[in-house]
UniProtKB/TrEMBL annotation:
The lineage of its organism: Bacteria, Bacillati, Bacillota, Bacilli, Bacillales. Keywords: ATP-binding, Cell membrane, Membrane, Nucleotide-binding, Translocase, Transport. It is a peripheral membrane protein. PANTHER family: ENERGY-COUPLING FACTOR TRANSPORTER ATP-BINDING PROTEIN ECFA1 (PTHR43553:SF24), HEAVY METAL TRANSPORTER (PTHR43553). Belongs to the ABC transporter superfamily. CDD domains: ABC_cobalt_CbiO_domain1. Gene3D superfamilies: P-loop containing nucleotide triphosphate hydrolases. This is Energy-coupling factor transporter ATPase. Pfam families: ABC_tran. It is found in: Cell membrane.
Length: 283
């Protein structure tokens, strides 16, 4: 039977996950994920960082069964992604937002684009119409219902992609470098949409190269070499300067500024959690 585990509120569990790609039908010997263990409780906001090629996108594609593990287990609410019968349910529960907003848009107006996914799921029209209005408001695209998506800014397009995903009311939304092609305004808009989703109780997995974006999360996971290397609160993770530089990872602006000031003889405390705290201390 498919187990709908409310197991301590855990939504995502990866147990000893191993994975390698098959290239032209020949399976590669190289493990992209080499014994990855992680759990994410329901409602948590997690950021995932790691060098290029560390397996972040591969891990993301495991979470809704786009890829299935070669070894080990991926469980979503206790549902195993290798169980074909559970796959449809898993895809309802886990939404994905990718890097390039242009690749995620299918219709000729904002409203039709959101409707497309719902129609595919067979949602009745009387349910669909109010649902579309709700998600348009949630991502702040009110007034743009009839706009052709190619007239939207990058940030608006990515918010449209988010609307299409959250229209299915998933429990988890995975953002795979969903801000990396956007300008600062667009990034800010998408981060705000993510924040609101989290406040509404959705579990967030946000893959990003930006330390300042990762600061928004409750927990940061660092992946390297196909494994989880380090995890903790943003304050914990960003106090590990040596580890972060080993993996060539970005550190938040306030950390760089604090270090620069200390080098110039400013007597500052060891840790500040964000730019605001640093400014407080300097004041
Ligand atoms: P990240 O998201 O951390 O940059 P990826 O999961 O994209 O890492 O990639 C991990 C490794 O898997 C890389 O070495 C990459 O070249 C390889 N890889 C990714 N996608 C494919 C694919 N479709 N076929 C073969 N190898 C792939």
């Amino acid at each position: 039977t498919v187990f709908d585990g409310k197991c301590g509120g855990l939504v995502i569990q990866l147990r000893e996950v191993r994975f390698h790609y098959a290239i032209e039908g020949v399976s590669s010997k190289e493990w992209v994920l080499s014994g990855l263990n992680l759990s994410i409780p329901s409602g948590e906001y997690v950021a995932v960082m790691g060098p290029n090629g560390s397996g972040k996108s591969t891990m993301a594609r495991m979470l809704n069964g786009l890829l299935v593990p070669t070894g080990g287990q991926v469980l979503i609410d206790g549902l195993d992604t290798r169980n074909d019968e559970a796959l449809w349910e898993i895809r309802q529960r886990v939404g994905m937002v990718f890097q390039n907003p242009d690749n995620q848009i299918v219709a000729t107006t904002v409203r039709d684009d959101i409707a497309f996914g719902l129609e595919n799921r067979g949602m009745p029209r009387e349910e669909m119409i109010p649902r579309i209005e709700e998600v348009i408001a949630e991502v702040g695209l009110d007034g743009l219902e009839e706009t052709p998506p190619h007239h939207l800014s990058g940030g608006q397009k990515q918010r449209l992609a988010i609307a299409g995903v959250i229209a299915m009311r998933p429990r988890v939304v995975v953002f795979d470098e969903a801000t990396s092609m956007l300008d600062p305004t667009g990034r800010g808009e998408v981060l705000e949409a993510i924040r609101r989703l989290h406040e509404g109780g959705t579990t967030i997995v946000h893959i990003t190269h930006s330390a300042d974006e990762a600061l928004e999360a409750e927990r940061i996971m660092i992946m390297a070499g196909g494994r989880l290397q380090l995890e903790g609160t943003p304050a914990e993770v960003f106090s590990r300067a040596e580890a972060l530089s080993r993996w060539s990872l970005d550190v938040p602006f306030h950390v760089k500024l604090r270090e620069g000031l200390i080098r110039r003889g400013m007597p500052l405390s060891e840790k500040t959690a964000n730019t605001e705290e640093l400014v407080e201390e300097l004041w």
